[in-house]
Amino acid sequence: MSTASKPATALITGASSGIGATYAERLARRGHDLLLVARDAQRLQVLAERLGGEYGVAAEVLPADLTQKADILKVAQRLREDAGIGLLVNNAGVAMNGKLADADLEQAEAMIQLNVVALTHLAAAAAANFSAAGRGGIINLGSVVALAPEMFNAVYSATKAYVLSLTQTLAGELRGSGVQLQAVMPGVTRTEIWERSGTDASALPPSMIMEVGEMVDAALAGFDQGELVTIPSLPDAADWDAFVAARAALAPNLSHNHAAARYK
């Protein structure tokens, strides 16, 4: 993630609270300078001052509302042009609750803008910058609902399936470039996202809810181990390997010049 002994600057979106703020603390502890992005400039500034004081790193604040195109482009331009940035934590995201038929579609559109469109712009900018430099890392925050979409809201689950697919494809595109990709797929994590989405997390079994610090520590351990996909709750990595192998087994039969006999 760096061409020198000091780690590269990490740009973290959604950094004012929850998973993003925890990534900021853990990466500052590792010696990364920080570029913190979120809408809440006041919370960002308090976090930046605390982390800079505790860990002796530079912590810059870049307020941005990533549901707004102009702000997306502002952050993307910084990612493309700043050679000091070598790690992107694409964390900003929101959730919503309820059935699609009953949904506020303006709210759904804003969620797609943040969870998909903004994430894509920033991943593209980081890919261009980092691959040109021959180093760097892109961490995209997904969710286990990408693998079990029936568990939660349709649009949210679909946005997280997009995050997984984008990360897997981008990893192939950047193979050999020196840029490391990771999709982090948490289960239920104790953050503000549930309250904001109107979901009562307290109604879930406590055994399903992971504390945010433990989740981020596991995700960073997976990154250190070179995992493309990290599922912090998954006890046996062989289960994921079996899932990948089953998907690969479909590949020879996904596209033929005639329909399968069972459809005739």
Automatic annotation (TrEMBL):
Belongs to the short-chain dehydrogenases/reductases (SDR) family. GO terms for molecular function: oxidoreductase activity. This is Short-chain dehydrogenase. The keyword Oxidoreductase applies. Keywords: Oxidoreductase. It comes from the Bacteria. InterPro entries: NAD(P)-bd_dom_sf, Sc_DH/Rdtase_CS, SDR_fam. Pfam families: adh_short. PANTHER family: ALCOHOL DEHYDROGENASE. PROSITE patterns: ADH_SHORT. The keyword Oxidoreductase applies. CDD domains: SDR_c (cd05233).
